[in-house]
Each structure stands twice: as C-alpha cells, then as structure tokens.
Amino acid sequence: MILTVTLNAALDVTHRLDRLRRYGSNRVRDVAERAGGKGVNVSRVLHALGQPTVVTGLAGGLTGAALRRDLVEAGLADQLLPIEGESRRTVAVVEEQAGDTTILLEPGPVVRPGEWARFLGRLDALLPGAAAVVFSGSLPRGVPEDAYAVLVRRAHAHDVPAVVDADGAALRAALPAGPALVKPNAGELAAATGLADPVAAARSLRAAGAGAVVASLGPDGLIALTPHGGWRARSPERLAGNPTGAGDAAVAALTLGLVAGAPWPDLLAEAVALSAAAVAAPLAGEFDPAVHRRLRSLVDVRPLRT
Ligand SMILES: Nc1ncnc2c1ncn2[C@@H]1O[C@H](COP(=O)(O)OP(=O)(O)OP(=O)(O)O)[C@@H](O)[C@H]1O
Ligand SMILES: [Mg+2]
C-alpha cells in the first residue's frame, strides 16, 4: 500500500458561469465539489491504476466531513485525522465563454499542538503497512516549520521510503532528513535554490540531502538526478488540457517505480506518460488511460550530460 499524507486537505469547489462580472452579482450555472489536496490527487491516480493506497492527513469541520464523504465515494481508504479547525476550500470560478479560471485558495485551519502529536501517532500506526509514503502540499498553520523533516524521519524509523512534493521552506526543511525522492516543479526548484539552471538546482537539492531529485518542467518533461545517474525524459507530444495535478500524477508513477525497484529510465518514461495523460483529463487526480497507453513507449529518455 502507498500512503499519501495531505496535511492541508481541501474541498475543491468549482463554480461555472459564462462570464464573471467584477463588482457585480453573478449567477452560477452549476457547482461541483470534490476532495482535493495534492496527496489526495496522488491517491486518486494510484487507485485508478488499481494500486492499493491510503489517504491520511488532517481534516476538520463541515468542510472536512464533506471532503471525507467524497473520498469514500471515490473508493479511497480514508484515514484522515479529524481536527477541530475547519478544513479549507479551494474555489475555482470557471468562465466558460472566455475559458478563464480564477482560483481562491483559503488558508485552512490552525492545527493545535495536541492534534499534531495525535497525527504522529496515526502515522506511526499506518507506516508498518506502507511500501512508501508520499508527503504532498502546503503545511497548515500550527504545524512545525520542519514538519516534513519530522515526518520523513518517522518513515525512516519504519524503513519506509519517503517522497516529498512541497515547496519553499517546507521543502528545504525536509532535505536534511534524507527523503528518497523530491519532486519540485520548475518554479519550486528555482525558488528553493535561487538557481535558474534546473540541473544545477537539482544538484544542490541532492547535496542538501535528497536521495533523488526529479524536477518536472511542464511540457518539457522531467529531469532526474539520482544515485544511479541523471536523465531527461520528455513526452513526444505537447498535450492540451488541464495541467493542474499533472505533477501529482508524476509523483504517483515515481513512487510506484521506486517501490517496484524499476530502472530509472523506465520509471521516468512511465512518469512522463502518466503525467501527460493527466493533462489530457479534465480533473486533477484523473488521467486519460488511452493517452497513457499510447505515450508509454514513445517517451524520449536520455542521459543528462552533467
Ligand atoms: N502540456 C503538457 N504536455 C505533455 N506533458 C505535460 C504537459 N504539461 C505537463 N506535462 C507533464 O506533467 C509533468 C508535471 O507537470 P508540471 O511540471 O506542470 O507539474 P506541477 O507544476 O508540479 O503540477 P501540479 O503541482 O499541479 O500537479 C511534466 O513533467 C510533464 O511530464
Ligand atoms: Mg506540483
């Protein structure tokens, strides 16, 4: 089973209308709600691939209850720890005429010290059943700044490899704990290191403690610096669609490959094919299986000249 951890789980709310009039009243045509957060997206992708996965993290209030109901409806194993604060919503306003989307990200709850301690207990209870653990997304207020380092060390105490998909201070703080893999995107990589060149930036994250660094570069694919060498992998086609959640699909594939002990070039090809297939699907956490199958053998993987 692959365990995913979403500390700031969210209910993704999508409002659809023709056109948003600023400063006016807008009638919304329809509203959709869905459990979200990056770890939840990773679990959705794993579940769709037929791979056992469990969702944990923190969720609270009416919003937390709604998102947990949705997880169960999606067939996902819900092990989110209930907290007192109200989980956040992410609100997307989709203007169908112009094709524009405006997104509002709520800050989410303030986690209490006792809740954080209880979560560590929950993680310790789940880790013995996990082949790998994925820590994804932003940290809610109230958890320690080095939360991901604390969690990665917990995983190591159970001999479970840890994957971290975070940015900024949360990512940097995780590195000394030695996660097996980190997966920043281009912006996150530059922000975490101050370096414009992705290869140099990835090298500096490895030097700071990450076992492997796989950086996703949007339509340009992935670069990977690993203990066994460096590669660049790219989709033969640039897909049109919804890139939100493509990185989460890449994380799902990378984690599965790590668990299987797949050779890096194969693992990276699969990550590129699956993430491109995620762009081709409308919702984060989904992928187009036909695109996935078609691209798999077509991904270009070559060693990085370093
Ligand atoms: N337009 C595209 N066509 C083909 N593949 C794409 C495209 N956009 C993204 N990808 C694939 O998806 C992967 C992840 O994309 P990206 O770097 O945008 O992730 P991200 O910003 O972390 O996404 P998120 O955090 O929203 O899940 C890329 O490495 C690439 O393989
Ligand atoms: Mg991402």
UniProtKB/TrEMBL annotation:
Keywords: ATP-binding, Kinase, Nucleotide-binding, Transferase. Residues 17-286 form the Carbohydrate kinase PfkB domain. The keyword ATP-binding applies. It comes from the Bacteria. Belongs to the carbohydrate kinase PfkB family. PANTHER family: 1-PHOSPHOFRUCTOKINASE (PTHR46566:SF5), 1-PHOSPHOFRUCTOKINASE-RELATED (PTHR46566). This is 1-phosphofructokinase family hexose kinase. The lineage of its organism: Bacteria, Bacillati, Actinomycetota, Actinomycetes, Kitasatosporales.
